[in-house]
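seq:
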Amino acid sequence: MRPIQKSRKLADVCYDIRGPVLEKAKQMEDEGHKIIKLNIGNLAVFGFDAPEEIVQDMIRNMQNASGYTDSKGLFAPRKAIMHYTQEKKIAGVTIEDVYLGNGASELIVMSMNALLNTGDEVLVPAPDYPLWTAAVSLSGGTPVHYVCDEQAGWFPDIEDIKRKINANTRAIVVINPNNPTGALYPDALLLEIVELARQHQLIVFADEIYDKVLYDGATHTSLASLADDVLFITFNGLSKNYRSCGYRAGWMVVSGEKKHARDYIEGLNMLTSMRLCANAPGQYAIQTALGGYQSINDLVGPGGRLLRQRDLAHKLLTAIPGVTCVKPKSALYMFPRLDPAMYPIADDQDFAYQLLAEERVLIVQGTGFNCPSPDHFRVVFLPNTDDLTDAMGRIARFLDGYRKRHGTS
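struct:
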């Protein structure tokens, strides 16, 4: 029999957050091992429940959710999102500029499918949320990674972005608040990115899914609020701010310079119609979520669970010899660095395998986020303080053994 092979379009596509190391963890679980999973921001499994009013609204509307909705989504949640863009000071958004999706992830892939031809380039941060790199590649484009500088708080390197813009560059992706680093970008930096987009007629894809998960009194500025002469595509959803990952309720908003993008918007509309609609039950949660009590503020504010766990994880990680970590201002993750002199890592996926095998702790290696060197990894700080202390203790014990085996302790 002739082997059935996957499409060549998948040659450069990977998503290591749910990659080979996770498969090994599943195998170990099947064998009876208990794994501490620090690999994914799946809030519900750590006891972060969706707000009760969202749950009740979905239940009450379930009888109305059997049929297809408009391909862009129900009117009421789209209007609520339109009002939210007004709160974020994004000008000129109408109901027709709002698209609902099965999570923001579906819409990210759709936005790239509608745009890219072979040879087109998209600027993507390094490190990045790997779906962005994968979506560009899957859509026939070429992801070009610009540097986010760890020494500068993981902020994008504007000079590096300038060097990588050429005649084939169509767009730039900005993930703010950032996954995996937890960085939050200041307005002055955002304005520099907007100016580059203006000069080179680039589309700005703004991933703002963590825009309410902010610590230490920080505030978030939506990129699309900073100009009306650049085309912005802004992504958000309920997964993180409202602890509703499984509802798959996300949205995409087109704003700014739209009149020169009519053909692209027609492509977005075509792909939106082809998938018929986003799931209806999830759509019914959006209006209540955006208009209700913002319980995320209790979690990230003084004394809040997420804030306490962030501080604990950072303290425990940076107490390990040779481990440094820029303290995140936002999101749910730590992205620590291992001193290469103390931890000579040639293959960070193998490093993640070793940690899993020895200590039953699942992380994601830094190269899974297109980090150029194998000296970082990402962990979530979602477990409660006891479990988090246990997990960080296991990582510390593993790293102590790693230094001894390599003679660097």
